[in-house]
Amino acid sequence: MLSIEQTIQQIVDELSQRIENTQIQTELIKIDAALRRVCADDVVSPMAVPPFDNSAMDGYAINVKNTNLDQLDNLPISQRIPAGVAPQPLQTNTAARIFTGGVMPDGADAVVIQEHCQLDEHGTCVSLLKPVYIGENIRRQGQDIQANDVVVAKGTQLSAVHIGLLASMGCIEVRVYKKIKVAIFSTGDELVQPGQQLQPGQIYNSNRSMLFALCRQLDVEIVDLGVVADQLNETMTALNQAAQQADLIISSGGVSVGEEDHVKDAVEQLGHLNLWKINMKPGKPVAFGAVNDIPFLGLPGNPVSSFVTFQLIAQPAIQTLQGQPYQVPVTYPVVAGFTKALVTRQEYLRVKLQTHNGLPTAQLFGNQSSGVLSSLCWADGFVIHQPETAIQEGQSVQFMPMMG
Ligand code: AMP
Ligand code: MG
C-alpha cells in the first residue's frame, strides 16, 4: 500500500511533466479580473514604491542637521505640504507643515509629529517639545518595492493583496494561465438530485454539489456530466465525453472492485489506471489514470471520503495543472484532547480546536464514520493519526486545517 504522501507526489510529478510537455495556455487579463488566477510570468516592477520619500505622520518637516539648535523654538512655517502636492525645497531654519503621504521637501530630514509641537498664537511659528532624530517619521522611496524587483513570481495564485501590490506599481494587466476545465460526474444507481422525490433505497446526491463548490473555490471551469448509472457502457460514454471537453476528469463512487463498481474497468478500456489502496482513512480506494491522455481521478463515494481525498489529492492535482508549484500542506502541533487506540492506516480525524490552559487543543467528533458529512461541518480540520501509533490525551499531535 502507498502512503498518502507518496501518492500525492506521484500524481503531482506526473501532472507537472504533462504541463512541461504541453504548455498550458496563457492570457493577458486586467488585474481587477485576476483574483485567484495563477500568474504565468514573473512580474517585475518598473518603478520604486513609494516613488518618493514621504511623511508617515501629520506634523512638521524640518532639517535637523542644518537647523540652528537655538532656533528649534519658534521655527517659521515656510510652506504647507498636503499629500499629492509637489513641495518647494525647505528654506533654511524653517519648518514645513506636512501631512501623511506628503512629499518630503528637499533639504528636510525629519518629520516631527504635531503632538510634539506647539504653535505660537498666530499659527506662523512652531516650537519643538521633544528631541528630534534624523530620519524620524519618513517613509523612504522604495521601502516597499525597488525598481526591477520581482513583485509576483510565476506560479503564484493572485490574492487580493497581490492585486493591490500590482496596482501600487501602476500595473494594468497581468499574464495568467487559462482556467482549466474539470469534468465531474457521480456514479451510483441510488443517487437522486435534490428537488426530486426519493424512492425506497434512494439517497440524494451530495457529492455532486460539494465537489462543484470545492472546484469553484479553486477557480476552475466545471463541466457537469451529471450522474452516471452503475453500468460499464454508461461509464465509458461519460469518460469519453469528459475527455473531449476537460483538462481533468473527477468522478465520485464506483472505484472499488465490487460488481457494481465499473469505473476501474471503464478507465482501463479507454486508457490506463492505477487503482490505489492508499494507506489512509477515510479515503481508500482512490484511482488515478488517464482517458485519451486526459488525467483522471476517481474519488470514493462516501461523502467524507470524497471531501478528504479532494482536499488531499484533487486539490494539489488541480493546482499543478493550473501552473502552481506543489507545496506540502502545512500542519501544526496541537494538544490531543482525546485518547485513541493504535491504528493501521493513516487516519484523518475530524476535530475542532478549543483553547485549554492557553494551548490549542483538538476535540474529536464522536462518530468518525465516512458517511457522516455533518462531522465536517462541525470540524475545523483534521488530526493526522499516524499508522501503528496510539494517541494519548495531552500528547502533541499534528493538525491540518480544512480547506475552505
Ligand atoms: P461507492 O464508492 O460507490 O461504493 O459508494 C460508497 C457509499 O457512498 C455508498 O453508501 C453510496 O451510496 C455513497 N455515495 C456514493 N456516491 C454518493 C454521492 N454522490 N452522494 C452521496 N452519497 C454517495
Ligand atoms: Mg456506488
Structure description:
The chain is of the alpha/beta class. It is 21% helix and 30% strand. The strands form 7 sheets. A 6-stranded mixed sheet has the order 7-4-6-5-9-8, with no helix packed on it. The mean pLDDT is 94. Adenosine monophosphate binds next to strand 13 and helix 3.
How would the blueprint of this fold be written?
Layout: H1 4-22, E1 26-30, E2 43-44, E3 54-55, E4 59-62, E5 75-81, E6 95-98, E7 110-113, E8 117-119, E9 125-128, E10 138-139, E11 150-152, H2 160-168, E12 173-177, E13 181-187, E14 191-192, E15 203-204, H3 206-217, E16 221-228, H4 232-245, E17 248-252, H5 263-270, E18 271-276, E19 280-281, E20 286-291, E21 294-299, H6 303-321, E22 332-336, E23 346-356, E24 359-364, H7 374-378, E25 381-385, E26 396-401
Parallel strand pairs: 5-6, 13-16, 13-17, 14-15, 17-21, 19-23, 22-24
Antiparallel strand pairs: 1-12, 2-11, 3-10, 4-6, 4-7, 5-9, 8-9, 18-20, 20-21, 22-26, 23-24, 23-25, 25-26
Magnesium ion (MG) binds at residues 187-188, 230, 253-254, 260, 301.
